[in-house]
Amino acid sequence: MATDQLLHDGPSRGVRHAMSKVPEVTVYFWIIKVLTTGMGETASDWLAHLLGPVPAVGLGALALAAALAVQLTARRYVAWIYWTAVVMVSVFGTMAADILHVGLGVPYLISTPFFLLALGMVFALWYGCEKTLSIHSIHTRRRELFYWATVLATFALGTAAGDLTATTLGLGYLGSGVMFAAAIAVPAVAHRWFGLGAIVAFWSAYIVTRPLGASFADWMAVSSGRGGLAWGLGPVTLYWTIAILAFVGYLAATRKDVA
User: Fold this and answer.
1) What are the boundaries of each domain within the chain?
2) Is 195 helix (H, G, I), strand (E, B) or coil?
């Protein structure tokens, strides 16, 4: 797949379809996205401790299926419906990565490339079928299914990558958070000053939001012996959820994320 092909959307490039199922990419989009990643990380761990791994995964799968069903049946983008689906993908994506590591004993050095390969396959299938990877083109059922498959893969990849840097590579959660905070600026700089295509820049930054938010949420939640602030999984989940509700409520009222 040629690089220049990935950077273009065909006739619809730069145009937002009236029936688009995703929000405009604004600063609010990135703030809420990072918040959902952190909330999903701690919520997944909290549920696993509270219910046990198997019941937690079952509950997460049911919640994800319900949220996606509502999202897929909606006729156009609705803030609370869309972001509820993202939150559920975040929770379940964390569980998917944790199952491989905790449940099956797969090292992060293996699971991270595995999820990277899975994401690449989703991108290849999406582009092969639709000839675009632009989120401005999400206005058909098939494109929306590709979009959510991509989102799920990015969450699983980001979870594994964040744990890889924090634990396996020994950077710690705060160190990982700082590293990914710097890394997320790279696609923006490359797009603005070095000609990186908008689509590649968007998805590159999108992937990094997962380990960025999760690293800082883990840093807040884990014990001081693990280098954290020891606020606890439950409280951190609650705080980040309140922040998400505040931002989503603001967008629902102002519609600043709708063209």
Assistant:
1) 19-254
2) coil
